Amino acid sequence: MDLGTIVGLGVAMGMVVFGILLGGVGFQYYIDVPSLLIVVGGSIGSMLISSPLARTLAIGKYIGKVTSVPNLQEGKIITNLVSFSERARREGLLALEDNLDEVEDEFMRKGIQLVVDGTDPEIIKNILYTELNQINNRHADAITYFASWGSLAPAFGMIGTLIGLIAMLANLEDQSGIAKGMATALITTMYGSMLANIMLIPFKNKLEDRDKYETRQKEIVIEGILSIQSGDNPRVLLEKLLSFLPPAEREPIKAESNQ
């Protein structure tokens, strides 16, 4: 579970609620079912129009990606690639096939299998980067979904505002009708802004962050596999792969590899 996401949602909602309570007006004045239907229902309906149905049905999976911490294990992957490099230099590339079942990362296992099969380096590079591009494209579907939804929610808030203003103007002689129309006009805008800025846009940003780090992990694997095939010295390979990581993360991996 990603505590940053959970705590962030709690803090953001908590501060809004706290601000409402400090405003001296009852919380019930900020609850308006028509406004909620306009913003949430309307924006979801618009997303059904603009995106494939399967993408909308996958919202739960997308949110799961946001709220969970990916286990990329970059340190373990670098250590394993260095070990494969050492064995390849001692026993030859075909010896790597004996350890393929121990490789947990499917992307890395595929790359090593291609090396063992004697595939041309350029072909291996093309295959792995094609797969990486497809992974990025799948990530982009979720990122674009939340980005689009984040832009539509405030727009439906404005639609609700117009609906409320029309209702207010239509009931100028009815004081209760004016109040109800004004409530819909203002609260709908608030709902749209809250939905976009507390959930949808932050979710989009978090998914972009996830994509960046998974892409880095896959590039480490690609660089390591191509270096193993070319027969690079394991120490050179280690330094090459560590350069992908921030300096603070390099020393523990280097110490483990030198044991």
What descriptors fit this protein?
259 residues, mainly alpha, 10 helices, 80% helix
Gyration radius, rounded = 26 Å
Structural class: mainly alpha
* Largest sheet features: none
Shape: elongated
Task: Summarize the amount of helix as a percent range.
Answer: over 70%
Average of pLDDT: 87
β-strand amount: under 5%
- Enumerate the spans where pLDDT stays under 50 for 5 or more consecutive residues: none
Query: Can you count the helices?
Result: 10
Tell me the count of domains: 2
- What is the number of E strands? 0
Distance between the termini: 32 Å
Can you walk me through this structure?
This protein has helices at 3-22, 33-50, 53-57, 59-67, 74-91, 106-116, 121-170, 175-230, 234-242, 247-257. By secondary structure, it is mainly alpha-helical. The chain has two domains: 1-30; 32-259, no CATH class. The longest helix has 56 residues, at 175-230. The protein is elongated. The relative contact order is 0.15.
Helices, strands, pairings?
Elements: H1 3-22, H2 33-50, H3 53-57, H4 59-67, H5 74-91, H6 106-116, H7 121-170, H8 175-230, H9 234-242, H10 247-257
Helix pairs in contact: 2-7, 2-8, 4-8, 5-8, 5-9, 5-10, 6-8, 7-8, 8-9
Quick summary of this structure?
This protein folds into two domains: 1-30; 32-259, no CATH class.
